[in-house]
Amino acid sequence: MDKLFTSYPLGDITLNNRVVMAPMTRSRARAGDTADELTAKYYQQRASAGLIITEGAQISVQGQGYLFTPGIYNDEQVKGWEKTTRAVHAAGGRIYLQLWHVGRISHTSLQQDGQLPVSAVAVRAENSTCYARDEQGNAGPVPVSSPRALTPAEISAVVQDYVNAAKNAIRAGFDGVEIHAANGYLLEQFINGGLNTRTDEYGGLQHENRLRFVLEVTDAVSQAIGADKTGIRLAPFGRLFDMHAFPGEEETWLLLAKKLSSRSLAYVHLSDQQTLGEQAIPAGFIEKFRAAYDGTLIIAGGFDKALAESYLQQGKADLIAFGRPYIANPDLVERMANGWPLSEVNRATMYGGSEEGYTDYPAYQELA
């Protein structure tokens, strides 16, 4: 049997296979930024994945950068997500919730009372858009607003927002959470030495200072719900949303790998952004990260069955995450296991809307 389809122990649960459904924004939350029955149906259809990682759920109003994305910071949102966890567990699946704060990739129209978004520093992300309302009130892509820098006291408050969101996720029935520290969002805005020029303990030339925030979040969430229920997503050498190269970039990521290794997390999840039109993780870096991080490693980014199996056989990763193929193939595990052809995604219905392009993709056996 291919290793991809063998079981795997993850924290206090066992996954049925090593296929992970990667987190993907679908922008279909309803009133109050709440997941609903349609969300539950979407994830239940994909429950044969060894592990589902949901789309990012904002941990606060401040953390939102896109309209119609679900939150995890109030009781109604918890009740909404309960429908999803019950549905996935009833189908035999396992599911983690991704905790999301976009930082500067937001717009004043999304913020409480029209406040500025926040970041490590007061520097706007050039050539970047979020999904908000324009001056006429129409929903669509708009240039992000200029942010303000968080104070140390405010950073502590955001850490608590992550903790509250993680506790809410467990209340909603999730098997664990994934801290989103990738793709140019808040935590990566602190990690990136090309952006973070703070002069306090949370920034500057020292790697340890720029890693302080993400490690504080990781430690606080782990203490609140258990390290074995806490994962984290990183995008080493990521360039999304105006992230730039900086001196000591590889050293920063490998130091973070070493520090995370001592924390006995459920997993670390690396996102290779080549399928998003950005540069790939440099050759040889995965092996260096693997050597520095002693724990379960997930990798996402452009995998098919053959490449996934190759990575597992070589020991480069323990689990492989698939993103876009899961949109049009709810039975992706079965299709790969049986050699059935994959359906193509309709890009026009990837974001927003209702059932079309969301829950109406049939399984292969339905097509047959």
Automatic annotation (TrEMBL):
Classification of source organism: Bacteria, Pseudomonadati, Pseudomonadota, Gammaproteobacteria, Enterobacterales
Superkingdom assignment: Bacteria
InterPro entries according to UniProt: Aldolase_TIM, OxRdtase_FMN_N, Oye-like
Name under which the protein is recorded: Alkene reductase
Annotated NADH:flavin oxidoreductase/NADH oxidase N-terminal domain residues: 3-341
Transmembrane segments: none
Annotated SUPFAM superfamilies: FMN-linked oxidoreductases
Pfam families (UniProt xref): Oxidored_FMN
Cross-referenced PANTHER family: NADH OXIDOREDUCTASE-RELATED, NADPH DEHYDROGENASE 2-RELATED
